[in-house]
Structures are given as C-alpha cells and as structure tokens.
Write a structure and sequence with these properties.
The protein has a 7-stranded antiparallel sheet with strand order 24-23-26-27-29-30-33. It is built from 5 helices and 35 strands. Helix 1 (2-13) crosses helix 2. Strand 29 (418-423) and strand 30 form a beta hairpin. It is mainly beta and 481 residues long.
C-alpha cells in the first residue's frame, strides 16, 4: 500500500501547470484500476490534480495575501475598495481584485469566501477577462441561488463556474463585487485554472473515438455500453455523457446506457470534463456514436406476382417487376443472377441500396427476358443482405423463375407458367387447382406433400437449407432461411 501511495503521490505532484495538457498514452483503463487510481488520488488531495489553485486573502483595504500556486509570481494581484472597512462593503460600495499573469491559461472555477448580514445583504458580481465577461451575478440578495441561497453570518463558499475562455496576452482578470443592500463581507478569492492546450503535438488527442461508430440494439435490450463500445483517447479526465434522444435511450454521468421501450435513433456523446484533453472542438470534435434501437430484426419481402403474367415473344423483350421491400437493414441488398441457357438475358442490377429497399413503397426491380432459342429456361435470383448486430446471422432470399417450352416461331407467345421461390422459411409457387406439390430436403427425404389451389400458394416449413419443390412434372430448388 505504501508503494501504491508513493506512486500516486508522485503522479499527482506531476500534474502541475504542464500537467494540465494531454497525456500521450492510451487511457482505456479497467474499472478495477480506475477505482484504485481514484482512491489513491483522493488520498493526496483531488483539488489540485487537474489544475492549479491560488487563494487571494484580503489583508487590508488595498492589499491581499497570496497562497497556493499563482500563474506568474512576478505579477501580484491588486486589490482596492471604494470605501468601508477591510472586509465589508455596504450599499453602493465596490471591492475590486485585479489579476495579472493569466495569459495562456483559462479559469475553471472561482470560490468566494463571503457572508451577509443576519437577514440582509446583496449585490452584483462581474468577472471580466480582457473585455470578455466569464462570470456574473445580476443584482440579487445573498439568500437567493444567484449567491449562496441563504443568509449567513459566518463565511461560506460561493462557487461560480466561469465560461470557458482562453486568456490572451496583456489581458487582466478583474473581479468586481458591488453591494446594493447592506451588507456583504468578503474574506478571500480562490481561483482554479489550467493551461490552454495551444501546442497541437501536446494537445491533439490523435483520434479520440469510440470502437464502433454505429451500434444496433433491439427495444428493451440490456446494453453494457462501456464494455461493448469503449471510448479510446489520449488524455485524462472523466466524461459528461449525453443522449440526443432520451426517449429511445438514456445515459447517466458514468456512461451507462439504458435502452427504453421505443424504437428510434439517438446519438451518444462523450463530453470530456477537461478541455486539455481535446484542446478545442475545432481540433477534435466531441466523440459520439449512433445507437439505433429497432422494434424487430431485419426482414426483406419479395412480391413477384407480376411474373405470372409475363408473355414472351420471339426476338422481343418481355419485362416483369419484382418488388423488394426491407426493414431495419444494416446495409445494401446484393442481387445475384444465374440462368441455365444462353437464350435468357436479364438487366443485371447488382445492388439495391438500403434507402431504396426501406422506402415505403419498396424498390421495383425490373427484369428483361429476351429468349433467342427454343428450350426450357430457369433463372435463379439470390438476395443477400446484412443484419444489425442485435439480429443473429445474415439474411438471404432466393427466387427461381422456371419457364417451359418457348417455341421460337416469331409470332407465338408463351407465359411463364411456373413460379417457384422461397421467402425465409416459406415456399411460394403458382399451380393449377388439384396439382400435387411435394417438397423434399437435400437428401431426398419428403418434408411435406399438399394439393395445390389455383394461383399462388404458400407453405411455411420448420426447416432451413436447400429444398426441392416438385409440382407435377416440374421441379425447382429453393433455399429456406
């Protein structure tokens, strides 16, 4: 334990002015080690770990004593009062503290040790760096939240968090307190500040990002965000986490994400507490990722009913449309074509984009069939698509178009008489009423046998893999998912 304490004492002591800049080491730290580090740092005093602190205590009506680490020992603070005793200001009186030597730093916290009268006292506060106001209190009584929130005849800490501002050369910081009700008392001013990350080599986090830029989950899922999608960065400090759509998923201060019961999309953002990690938003934007919460897993449906009405004429091109519609896709749909004789040609569109498939009307895939010789033909179409991480496996559909005995005479027409395809675990086919339909697995074992009705038929099977569909004298191969 002594060794650990000595190590972290040295660690904390090195976090002085230069230590406010970014570390150049990967800081994805196991939870157990984070707890050990936090405990050790608290032992040596957390107040000075991430910035320097200096206190200016009023010594007279025109001077202060300085304790702690001032940014520039050659630029002492100047203090003045318009009237009154050393610590008290009454209605219309002003106390002013002017600080020099803060160029290249930003003030991150101000603590005023103040008190009021027993049941009165109030005023205004102005903190100005150069010409920029970084903190203020409009005219208010001491017992309001703008100051302390209660009357106090003992000195208490009034804490103000300034607007982030990089103090420039030749800019002083002027803290002015003016009393508007009797009376206010001021004992000291404590300033916490840190170095501005102006050196790109020291401050640029070099790729501050999450492991994944997009994460898919289902409604009600348990999601260990810190383990499944950790934040990698060079630097130090904690994160303030935000969710852009808390109705879909909320995130607490520690980065724990809770998925709600509503499907939708939200952006999870980590906002580092210490600006030295990222130096500026222009250099390295706040890291974030998209969380997509879906109601159900991916589905793709095919409507090939238009194919049953296609007429093919010699040396002319027949057209038909297959409507492809998808939901919750994680990417584009890839279309694969094959046919068994050279007389059949199809306009080969190889990709249906996610946006096209998820349109409310789906996507109409046009087929162009142009037979140039007599014979039977079979055209196989395969549709494959990625699923989100929350849905197991990958998706795929198969469609088989079987045409028979196209006689090339130049005038005869023939319709595609047989349509057989599969959608997930459902076999879809056209047949005449009374035809026997038998389905076998890849080993030739019968899965089912039914009597077809006229037109389109659908059979759902508790089976995955290759299946052979026989209708009368015709047979076709399909793949069930």
């Amino acid at each position: 334990m002594k060794t650990i304490f000595t190590f972290f004492t040295a660690f904390a002591s090195n976090l002085t002015r230069g230590g406010a800049k970014c570390f150049k080491s990967l800081t994805k730290t196991p939870k157990s080690l984070k707890m050990l580090m936090l405990t050790a740092i608290l032992l040596v005093g957390s107040a000075n770990v991430w910035g320097e602190t200096v206190t200016y205590t009023i010594a007279s009506t025109s001077s202060v004593n300085t304790t702690g680490t001032a940014p520039d020992d050659d630029s002492p603070a100047a203090y003045s009062k318009s009237a009154g005793t050393m610590n008290m200001i009454t209605n219309g009186q002003t106390a002013t503290l002017t600080l020099s030597g803060y160029a290249g730093y930003k003030i991150t916290n101000i603590v005023l040790s103040m008190r009021s009268a027993a049941s009165n006292g109030g005023g205004t506060l102005s903190v100005v760096a150069g010409t920029t106001t970084i903190a203020s209190v409009s005219d208010a009584l001491f017992n309001t939240p703008s100051w302390y929130g209660a009357w106090s005849t003992s000195y208490v800490n009034v804490t103000k968090t300034p607007t982030s501002y990089d103090i420039q050369e030749d800019e002083d910081v002027v803290i002015t307190i003016t009393a508007t009700a009797n009376a206010l008392y001021i004992q000291s001013y404590t300033i916490t500040y840190e170095a501005v990350g102006d050196d790109e080599d020291d401050c640029e986090p070099h790729g501050m990002s999450f492991l994944e830029s997009i994460v898919y989950k289902k409604v009600g899922d348990t999601y260990d965000a810190l383990e499944e999608n950790p934040l990698y960065y060079n630097g130090h400090g904690t994160e303030n986490w935000e969710s852009s759509n808390a109705e879909v998923a909320s995130v607490d201060y520690d980065g724990n994400v809770t998925i709600k019961e509503i499907a939708g999309t939200t952006t999870i953002t980590a906002n580092p507490s210490f600006s030295a990690i990222r130096c500026s938003e222009e250099q390295d934007p706040l890291p974030s990722y998209t969380l997509v919460v879906i109601e159900d897993c991916t589905s793709v449906t095919l409507d090939a009913s238009d194919l049953t009405n296609v007429a093919i004429v010699n040396n002319e091109t027949a057209t038909a449309t297959i409507n492809v519609k998808g939901e919750n896709l994680a990417g584009d749909i890839t279309v694969d074509y094959s046919n068994d004789i050279n007389g059949i040609f199809i306009n080969q569109i190889t990709t249906i984009t996610k946006e096209q498939a998820e349109d409310e009307n789906g996507y109409d895939l046009e087929l162009y069939i142009h037979p140039t010789e007599e014979g039977n033909f079979t055209v196989n179409l395969g549709f494959t698509y990625p699923k989100p991480e929350s849905c197991s496996g990958s998706g795929g559909l198969s469609l088989l178009i079987s045409g028979g005995n196209v006689t090339i005479t130049g005038i005869d027409e023939v319709s595609i008489s047989r349509l057989i395809y599969a959608v997930n675990n459902e076999v879809v086919f056209t047949a005449a009423a009374g035809e026997t339909v038998t389905i076998y697995n890849a080993l030739g074992q019968q899965l089912t046998s039914v009597i077809a009705s006229d037109g389109e038929n659908r059979i759902t099977l508790p089976y995955t893999g290759v299946a052979i569909v026989r209708i009368g004298a015709s047979a076709a191969k399909v793949v069930l998912k």
